[in-house]
Amino acid sequence: MIAAALAAGSLVVPLAAAPSSAADGDCVTSVPTYVWEPYTSRNIAAPRVLHKYMDWAPKSGTADSMIDTLATANVKGTSKVFTGGGNGIIYEATLNGQVNAFKDNTATGGSLLTPIKSYSFNWSQAAQIVTNGKYILVVASDGTMDVYEQSAPASGNGTLTKIGSTTSGDTRDMADGGDLWMVGNGLYWLKSGTIKKATLVVVGSKPKVLYPSEVATGVTASQAWSPGVGVVNTQATTSDPDTTGQIGKYATDPWTQLDGEVRSGIVGDVMADAGYCLADPAEDVQPYFATPPDETGGEEAVDAPEDPAQTPSNTVTGKFTLGNGQPAAGLPVNLTAAELGDEATATTQLPFLGSATTGADGTWSITLPSTLPADVQQAKDDNGGVLNLQASVEGVTTTTSTPMLGVDTLSTTTAQHSPTVTGREDDAHTTPLTPSTVSDTTKDTYAASTDSQTLAAKIESDPAPAPDTVPTWQSDNSTLAADYNAYLVNGHDVSTEAVRPPTEPMTSGNCWQTKVLQDTSTKYTVVGEAHANWDAKSTFEYDSTMSSSIETAIKSSGNWTIGGSRELSSSASVSVAWNNRPKYSHQFKVPILYKKWKRQNVCGGVARSTWYTIEASKYHVPAGGALGKAGKDVSSKDGATNFSKSPKANRSYLMGTGQSIALGHGKSVKFNGAVSAFGISLGAKTGYDSNHKQKLTIGSKSGKHWVWGKNGSISSGHAGVFYSK
């Protein structure tokens, strides 16, 4: 980068001259871009996360243009953060009158915020602070712009000297604008849909802002920034977490869209460590951060073998435990058809399909009748040949006489049918008993007014995909404390107490089980995701029928826990394959009707146990709603950094152009936070087959196109989902 001096002591234009070409070695092919993410706490003094991305191929946007480096650091929420100039220097202006300079050393394996030097300047009340590395501009709310010079912009440890101040209509416009940024000597600001540009000039100790002009009008963005001269990135925010944080890329001369959606889901204050001259990387260079990843290991991608046909069975099994994981032995298990009475509005009495007693190890087994009752058979036929069941046990602790209840939701097939996923087939079928403190008169606690305070709402409203794990217990009106103990009843932890069976079994002839509908809600639910990086294109196909199992929530005490899954295999009118554009990684959602039920075990006309359930019911398109739609951007799971962390045994590659690979066998991973229903976050899985698959097609660029499965290679049939480099 070059500073041009016209004459000693006269006009100085910093960083005004650009190298003549990329061959000069000064043009950059990637630009560090930092996102200061929103508050996660109501306490404004709490830290905010500074998250580093790399704007790859920033000039054209023809490659993966916003790589997640996975590097983060915490910064005080009351501070102001700014960067620029292309030297990896990040500044923090604190509330107590300090300006701290940091060096980003992540490219060499160091810290994102390596302390360099602190300065005593109180810029905490500034309306805007921007820098091009050499100059730092501090704009007050009245439009006064103070200009400081950094004597060592490359290291950030020089002297900060105030050169002077200037005020004009342009600086007042900047102070009042929505966003301000700097590239070289250029000052840009976005206000009311118009991007303007002016030039900083310095005559001795008198800085001036001159030559204002409009760059673009009608810009629908909440903020904007530049990785370098000639390019502007924009960020659009919406109330929809699936579309908010959408980044677009534009050339400025003339204003031309390069990529309308580089990626989405990036929210917060965005700033680039902008260089001056931008260049495109070579065509065959795949995006990476710091150093190219080790590409050893792996195999050429091939389809997994066909799934073996499922063996029909009339026998279902499970296991009940105490709260501490020890077996719950000697307790009666009663089995009902989960879907029976799903369309009823009045109370439905549920016939038992079988009973058993848990063994010494807590396991149980029930063989269904060879001929199912007509209404049960109809429910099974309506669900594509899959029968959803609920098994329940009751008991009382031997020490404190606390009523306990266990509810297990499971699925089975009693005749051959098309391939599908069985929701509980891979989790050992272990269900803990929980305190049964809900009574016949206990009112449902869910209220729309408190929904936003729940864990489910926080997961749903976050543009990032849900975490790999969610808490065992959830509240439908708040977020539970990390040390929440559902087994603490009247000051006693009942998780270790032995449990004895009830005095009267449900099969006595004097007892029955009932269900009555409490509420319904149609929610778009994640049933899969597809990934594509570099020049590859992704498709997620979900055609003709449902093939997903959705977790069921159970409440028998004050809060909710997951009690298994309910499988949906009925017909669906959805047929989807998204727009097949390159480097597009998103989840996919379909509309599913959820129902909340009040269930009871009744003996002699008195409710002995009462519990609520939240269950997926069926595919249901709301009036005016979409048959299916793209969900959250999940490209944070792709790319070279994630590839480097993947097990080599899980890697596969495609060679040549136009090749494709599909994951069409086995079952998907569980997508946590697939839906928020009545304030509770539920997960989902999908069975892969000819009508339900994740697919990737590579483009025209040469070299290996790598994919890797989360749980295994594609050819193993156990990948669950695959990602792309």
Walk me through the structure.
The chain has 725 residues and is mainly beta. The strands form 11 sheets. Strands 26, 33, 37, 39, 40, 41, 42, 43, 46 and 47 form a 10-stranded antiparallel sheet that branches. The chain is elongated and about 100 Å long. Residues 1-24 have low confidence and may be disordered.
Topology record:
Blueprint: E1 2-5, E2 11-17, E3 30-36, E4 47-56, E5 67-76, E6 80-83, E7 89-93, E8 99-103, E9 114-119, E10 128-131, E11 135-139, E12 145-150, E13 160-166, H1 169-176, E14 179-183, E15 186-191, E16 194-203, E17 206-216, E18 223-228, E19 231-236, E20 246-252, E21 255-263, E22 269-272, E23 299-300, E24 315-321, E25 332-337, E26 348-350, E27 352-357, E28 363-367, H2 374-382, E29 387-397, E30 403-412, E31 430-432, E32 434-435, H3 455-461, E33 473-474, E34 488-489, E35 492-493, E36 499-500, E37 511-530, E38 537-542, E39 548-555, E40 560-568, E41 586-603, E42 606-619, E43 629-633, H4 639-645, E44 651-654, E45 660-663, E46 671-677, E47 680-686, E48 692-697, E49 705-709, E50 722-724
Parallel strand pairs: 23-44, 24-31
Antiparallel strand pairs: 1-2, 2-16, 3-4, 3-22, 4-5, 6-7, 7-8, 8-9, 10-11, 11-12, 12-13, 14-15, 15-16, 16-17, 18-19, 19-20, 20-21, 24-28, 25-27, 25-29, 26-37, 29-30, 29-36, 30-32, 33-40, 34-35, 37-41, 38-48, 39-40, 39-42, 39-47, 41-42, 41-43, 44-49, 45-48, 46-47, 49-50
